[in-house]
Amino acid sequence: MKTLYLDCSMGAAGDMLTAALAELLPEREKVLSELNGLGIPGVEMSWEPAQKCGITGTHASVRIHGEEESEEMHEHGHEHSHEETHEHGYEESHTHEHAHSHAHHHHSGMHEIEHIVGALPVSERIRKDILAVFGLIAEAESHVHGVPVTEIHFHEVGTMDAVADITAVCVMMDRLAPDQVIVSPVHVGSGQVRCAHGILPVPAPATAYILRDVPIYGGEIAGELCTPTGAALLKYFATRFGAMPVMRTKAIGYGMGKKDFPAANCVRALIGETAAEGDTVAELCCNVDDMTAEAVGFAMETFLAAGALETYTVSAGMKKSRPGLVLHVMCREAMKDEMVALIFRHTTTIGIRENISRRYTLGRFEEKVQTPYGEIRKKISAGYGVTREKYEYEDLARIAREQGMSIREVLESI
Q: With contact defined as beta carbons under 8 Å apart, do 377 and 368 qualify?
């Protein structure tokens, strides 16, 4: 399985992820030329050699109308004024994800971002990825500031340099096409940051919101190591977070931040092959020949509600030539005892058989699709070089009922 592993032991920002992925590409200069040819307004990207703690990598920089962004022009991320200074190493590690506009920047809402992204000559999949990443940031800003997403005006994330970083990462992820993306626990830094509204803790509120349910940690390094853009890119593309798996590495990339720290200030990306991992499940089976169909159905619903991975029946001939069924319930080993108790409680069986199996599954996620009949859900399964898509049945059935159509007609229409 083609696996991309991202080591975020010094956090992550858009420019660092851009540079790390660029180093994995065999024709990186050609890709850079293609990125500069997308026509992002006023933007020119470049990739330059850089060193941190004796390690050679790449630094990604963005020029806006010929001028490179700098901390002196824009302090990163929290609507702070130009006169304020960094505190506790605030944003010392990343240099071009910023808060305010100068002569050629203006604050942008999602409508402006959608207009810019909609004009890019990229595939619909890449365009969807770019807008989804911005959507994560917009949701976080909306939550932090207590205003609707439609009223959010991006600062750090709405500038053209952030559009460039997010677009670059999405394009290169599409080019690399990993079957899975595993991300290390994310180092977010420590200390506090000063902004226009006062002093805030690290990680910044928007970053902390995006990184919900993600393993994060602080440390002795004072400063904001993970930016909202970096957090959103990791959250969107990660299949899971955890330690590096056993893998045969094919290429390694180092994406360097601008500032120096005691530790190498970089994101490290490794791409290679991992063995099919699978997971272990318990399959519990029993024979029943004296239950009504209603009772069997209720039992199966109960097992699924309690956390069973799957339950199904197979028709079988029982003792004395009676028709019956074999009930199968699959669950994780940790809840095996709980499921055994439920089977005895909700069926008439007096014995349960156990088989321990290893299963292999495609990664699954869901996206929402706009149709002439409103928003519907699409289930996507991917892995092992295979991608499958399927619309949510309940959504199709709802539209069919509302429109007086068959499900086949709904599918053809959308």
A: yes
The maximal CA–CA distance of the chain, rounded, in angstroms, is 89
Residues 6+ away with beta carbon under 8 Å from 287: 316, 318, 324, 325, 326, 327, 349, 351
Distance from CA of residue 77 to its chain's centroid? 21
Per-residue pLDDT 10s for the chain (414 aa) are 789 999 999 999 999 999 999 999 999 999 999 999 999 998 999 999 999 999 999 999 999 887 775 443 333 334 333 333 233 333 333 433 333 333 344 556 788 899 999 999 999 999 999 999 999 999 998 888 888 887 776 654 447 888 999 999 999 999 999 988 999 999 999 998 776 667 889 999 999 999 999 999 998 898 899 999 999 999 999 989 999 988 999 999 999 998 888 999 999 999 998 876 667 899 999 999 999 999 999 999 999 999 999 999 999 999 888 999 999 999 998 899 999 999 999 999 999 999 998 888 887 777 888 899 999 999 988 877 788 899 999 999 999 999 999 999 999 998
CA-to-CA separations, 112 to 104, 121, 126, 362, 402, in angstroms, rounded: 15, 17, 18, 36, 34
DSSP string, 291-353: --HHHHHHHHHHHHHTT-SEEEEEEEE-GGG-EEEEEEEEEEGGGHHHHHHHHHHHS--S--E
For residue 396, give the amino acid letter: L
Residues 206 and 188 sit within 8 Å (Cβ to Cβ)? no
pTM, two decimals, is: 0.64
Distances in Å between the alpha carbon of 384 and those of 29, 171, 367, 380? 29, 21, 20, 14
Is 410 within 8 Å of 369 (Cβ atoms)? no
Nearest-angstrom CA–CA distance, 3 and 272: 6
Residues 35, 50: Cα–Cα separation, whole Å:
21
Q: How far apart are CA 157 and CA 163, in angstroms?
A: 7
Q: What residues pair up with 379 in beta bridges, in sequence order?
A: 366, 390
Residue 373 contacts residue 364 (beta carbons within 8 Å):
no
Burial of 323 (0-12, 13-18, 19+ CB in 10 A): exposed
Q: Which of 224, 273, 231 is nearest to 248 (CA)?
A: 273
Nearest to 90 by CA among 231, 204, 7: 204
